[in-house]
Amino acid sequence: MNIKILQSEQYIEAINLSEYAFQYKVSKERIEELKQRMNHHHIVYGINEDEKLASKLHLLPHHIYLQGNKWKMGGVAGVATYPEYRRSGHVKALLLHSLKEMREKGMTISMLHPFSVPFYRSYGWELFTNRLMTTLKKSDLKRIGNTAGSIKRFTTEEEHPDLTQVYNTYASQFSGMLIREAYWWKTVVKDMNIAMYFDKAKSPKGYLLYTVKDSKMDVEEFIALDAEARTGLWNFICQHDSMVEEVSLTTHEKEPLFFAIDEPRVKAEVKPYFMVRIVDVEAFTKNYEWDHTNLAEPLTIHVTDSFAEWNYQSFLFNKKGVKSQKPNKEGVTLTVQSLAALCFGYKSPAELKACGLLDATDEQLNQLELLIPQTTPYFYDFF
Question: Which intervals hold domain N-acetyltransferase (predicted)?
């Protein structure tokens, strides 16, 4: 199939396809904004049929935090095909082409939000993070003490230095969090209220991104760097008790706040959220910070990838580090999906073995547990 990068004159075709596939309408005012975004921040791959756009995929060059380090990541979004061209191999071709392009551009990792988990698993992506969706009634809004700091509330359509500082400090603790550039912040804070918590020394320590409408408060981001900020932000939410009947919060699944509130037995649901893929296993393995000094004996890991053939790789780990080696019958075999789940901290070797996704002896399992550092995955963004 002939896959091309869409030029600016075809962006309206891409917008029209998104409108049809995802069943929404873009206002005339937003069309130019979307064109500018595609021009500056997207690489749009397309397949034409009868000289018209039939299928497309948007590649979004980003960076993420992993083990506190900055990694190149290729975000996949806006994958769509008109119904008359579906089941013709268009999406498969676009995904493979985008992976090859990411590999060439040094994007070792790819992420996406799935319309279907099994669909994208079949192409090598895997779940790597959950979100906790909590719903509280007005009667749950009970303050939990006082703090020495203060809340400053504001709105902005630009990157804010205090917001960025708090977010980066928080995000760098997790595996997978997006490193937000100035242009991306505009999309994050658009139409949002911002409440920033400052400690007694006027240092920013946490924030909320939220909306209040129709007697409901939706907290899209709740980020607190310490217990004081967590209490201060919660108490600010409680101050809306005369305005709202319900509050919803989206947080990390282990957010400590809900243990501390007056009645912790609130409506809460943990939902799997984003997916990740290792684009280039060899490059990933060389840059990932393994705990190889903990290994008592060498361990061989074989990686399989049914979609990206260049990722069939074997590695020997020992106390000195890791090196590529020729495949053999020894060691542990992992799919590229399982490797991603392990390295991003979404699942442990024992958990993968328990659900039948890892065949390893007790000794190999113990070696894997020692080799892979404990990390905590999370992702707040959407594309």
Answer: 1-145
